[in-house]
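DM from R.C. (forwarded with permission)

"hey, sorry to bug you on a friday — could you get me a structure for this? deadline for the figure draft is monday and I only need the backbone to look sensible"
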Amino acid sequence: MMETAPAAQRTALASASLIAARLAGRGIDFVTLLVLARLLTPADFGVVAVAMSLILIVESVFELPVGQVLLVEKSVNRGLLDTAFTLSIARGAVLAVLVGAAAWPFAILYQDMRLLPLICTLAFAPAVRGIQNPGMILYDRALDFKRQISIDVASKLVSCVFSSLLAYLTGSYWALAVGTVLTPLLLLLMSFTLVPYRPRLTLVEWRLFSSFLGWLSAGQVFAALTWQVDRLVLGWAMNKPAVGRFTIADNLSMLPSQILLTPVIGPLSVSLSSVRDDEQRLRGAYLKLMGMVALVGFPSLTGLALLAEPFVRVALGPAWGNAGEILRWLALASIPALLWTPFNTLALATKRSWLIFSRQLLDFAVKVPTAIALILAFGLIGACMARGIATTVIGIASLLAARKIIAVPIRNQLKAIARPAFGSGMMVALLYWPVGHLFAGVTVPVLIALLLGFAAAGALIYVVTVGVLWKGAGSPAGGEALINDVLMKLTRRAQR
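My reply, with the result:
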């Protein structure tokens, strides 16, 4: 039945299955985070966050988007798979050597020799993370995500149990490090178990990858520093508990994108690549992608910002202080970045990787000096302010670049996200006052009940508002139509 379904419905159903799986996987991540936050201290999270900032910078600089290259190519042969695997092996070896060499001077710079063994251990995570079975991409291209879902959920579950048990027994930040390394290691082993593939070391298709890696590798130097500059400056200028609170809030602010947007973008990026030679269809597909990203991203980040403080009180406890306030501002700062998400996919689908470099350079030029100045002046809130300024600039730049590259007017782009924006605004208008006044001074059971009730109320307000606007506009094609088709199909199946 799946094979005969229209392409749009197949894409929507694939996105729905991935979202459900990502909810399960991120649900495990979330439970792990909550358990570890109860068993460990903000200072423990802070020291690991400082160590991870070095790891993530080196990993980002040497990021090889081999999966994205395989995803957007019209056909994939054995040579492409072997070249992708060879590049991943080489990358892992380089990462391990560079991180190990940088560990000692980094520990001296931050005047904390605990960082030396911690960084050397954590270096195994990025080295292993990139060495996944390239044969998995063949199933992704066919919108068959069962294997990917299985290994994601299983690896996270095992890592959750092991790291939580270690934290309970030792009370040490090493539980965070062990969990960070264990997850990609399990992913690697299970990917080769579920998808048989005997790798061969070759660079026969290097030229295809080099056309992507040139601009992308150059841009990743700027992207890596931009991504971690707030944690680096906070780790140097403030104490470890402050860094730990910022890290927890930052991780929580990324959950909506990781859970909901990543599964949506994967299948839709395949659709975008398939029409890249037809400019009119490409514009239509791009606007649909923009609408879908806004439809999912706007309400989730807005709702998270509204309920950030009571959510942190329930989930993490009083030890985490102002992490709720930080989470609220980081969630709001993430909303403009949603405008970049579809444009990034467009740049990859049309093989204009220089556009990604340009964006990363702009982001670097805006965020790095802004973050340094505002963090030194205002601390944690300054880091949130710098994030919001940078994402706003990047969002506006994405609108302008899309207008130039595929001749889609800015008014059309704004129209594609108007209904989700209005629905999110309605949610804020109706819930901001009661959220600000009803959560103070209540017991934990009442707090939990209020939190669930307001989350449900926010979702209802958003769905009704967007649904009415969509019907009033004549039920146009777009994200609402895709979701409506999936719901109707699931309803018919349930009735049968």
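R.C.: lifesaver. Residues 55 and 123 are 6 Å apart (CA to CA).
me: no worries. The two ends are 14 Å apart (CA to CA).
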